[in-house]
Every structure is written in structure tokens, then in C-alpha cells.
Amino acid sequence: MARRSSSRAAAAPPSPAPALQPSLHERVVLVTGGAQGIGRGVAQAVLAAGGRVLIGDTDSEAGRACLDEWQVGDAAAFLPLDVASEAGVRRWIAAAGKRFGRIDGLVNNAGIADPHTGPLEQLTLREWRRRLAVNLDGAFLCAKHALPWLRQAPEGGVLLNIASSRALQSEPDTEAYAASKGALLAFTHALAISAGPAVRVNAISPGWISTEAWRKPAERRPPRLSAADHAQHPAGRVGTPADVGALAAFLLSPQAGFITGENFVVDGGMVRKMQYV
After folding, report:
1. What are the CA-CA distances from residue 91 to residues 10, 67, 96, 109, 236 (Å)?
2. What is the distance between the alpha carbons of residues 193 and 186, in angstroms, rounded to a whole number?
3. Does the structure show a pLDDT above 50 at 6?
């Protein structure tokens, strides 16, 4: 009787990993607060990767300026948006779906940027709730109304929350802002579990990002940064919206298909730097 061979054919080696160049070809991404600053940086990165983008913002002048400067035709659109209004969010999401026929990604970037609200003993409940209404409730409302679309995305939907390194470290008198961004990180990993595997959910926590050159034309100016401002960062410089946009484009792309529930700090290394007076 012939002896059965125990040898097996060698398995084919894995194919080379694809180049780390995110492709968002034909994907539709919504960016709240997308007309200026970090939001504009994310929107431009989406367009550069071949995607289509709808920016929402309370500043219509800034939104129209983006379209005038980008000159990308139907690949970009702007609609006014107040993320603190559920009715407004519902209309904005519905308009996006009607215009593009699909929604593949949502970037919750809109927020009140100024973190300083003074001593806690003097902070009014109204101002506390205002920070949470925009920075946290806005992300919740946009996610709530976009999820049905994201779950239908042909290659899986992606949701990105723009938090802050202030969710991890603080200056005095910033409790409302820090609380809103810290809660946004918890919201991120909770939703990643609830919405997966159809939708991936991650967060980006920017540090010092210079946005002066990324404002609408009437307010645009060169950054006023000193050598010391740059030198204190382990990366050697202050960040730009393009730094956040590059990571966002990757996380929105299929190349990041095994990443969900995570927070990525983009702060030039400052959160890892021990500082003593």
C-alpha cells in the first residue's frame, strides 16, 4: 500500500501591504465645522484623497469661501449647520443623503474652541451647558442621524470624533471644555462597540494646532509663533490643520479597516512630555 505523504504544499506568502496612501475614491464624507481651521484641513484632505465632501458650519461666508477657493465642482458642497439643533442636524443629514445618494463618513469636528471659562465658582450653568451642547451633544446628534446612512455604506461606514489633548491633560479654568472632550472619548469607544462591525468609530485628539492661515479670507493672517512655541514640542513645531487632515483621511479609508474604538493624539508629542516649573 502506498504511503500517504504528510507533507503539504507550502502556503503562498502574503501579498505586500498596500502603500500607505489613503484612497477615498467616490466616498462621501460629511465634516461639521468644516469651513475653517481643523475642519477645513480635514475636508481638504478628503478631497485630495479622491473623496467628496459636504461641509457644515454656522459661518456661511466661510463655507462659500471654501467652495470658491477649492474649485472642485460637484465634489464639494456647503450647507449651513448648527449642531446644537436636532432639527437642523436632521435636515442637514437628509440633504446630504439626497444630494449624494450615500454617506460613507462623518467627522464630528464642530465645537466651541475656547477652553477657558474662568474659575469654576464663577462658571454659570448656562455656559457649562453651552459647551456640552455644542461639543458633546452636537456629536451625539450628528451620529444619531447619520448612522442609518453609515450602516449602508458599501465598504463600511466611518465616524470620526475630533476631541482634544485637553481630554487627557489640563490648564486651570477649563473644566467645561475638558469635560466635553473627555466625554467625547467615552462616547467614541462606546459607539464603536454598538455600531460595529458595519461602522468604525475613532477619535482624534489634536494639541496645539495653528489655524490662523486656515480661516476665511477676511480673517486670515500668518501665524504669530515664536521659536520657543515650536521648540517646546518634541516634534519641533506647532501643528497645522493639514496634520490632522492627513490622519483623518487615513482613518476614513479602507486602509484603516482594522482600527476602531481608538483615540489618536496629534500634538507633536506634548502629551508625553514631562514638564516641571
Report:
1. 57, 21, 9, 18, 43
2. 11
3. no
- Is 117:123 a contact under the CB 8 Å cutoff? yes
CA distance 180 to 224: 28
- Is residue 104 exposed (0-12), middle (13-18) or buried (19+ Cβ within 10 Å)? buried
Structural domain total, the chain: 1
Q: Residue 139 belongs to what domain range? A: 28-272
Residue 18 lies in a domain: no
CA–CA dist 56, 94 (Å, integer): 13
Q: What is the pLDDT of residues 45-75, one digit of tens each?
A: 999 999 999 999 999 999 999 999 999 999 9
Q: Is 177 a catalytic residue?
A: yes
* Residue 22 is assigned to a structural domain of this protein: no
Quote the pTM value. 0.91
Catalytic-role residue among 78, 92, 140, 177: 177
Give the pLDDT confidence of 116-145 residue by residue, as tens digits: 999 999 999 999 999 999 999 999 999 999
Residue 171 CA to residue 73 CA, distance in Å, equals 43
Residues in Cβ contact with 34 at an 8 Å cutoff, skipping those fewer than 6 apart: 40, 42, 43, 53, 54, 55, 56, 57, 63, 66, 78, 107, 109
Q: How far is CA 232 from CA 226, 240, 244, in A?
A: 10, 16, 19
- Contact at 8 Å (CB) between 157 and 93? no
Number of H helices, E strands in the chain: 8, 7
Residue at 6 is within a domain? no
* pLDDT tens digits, one per residue of 161-219: 999 999 999 999 999 999 999 999 999 999 999 999 999 999 999 999 999 999 999 99
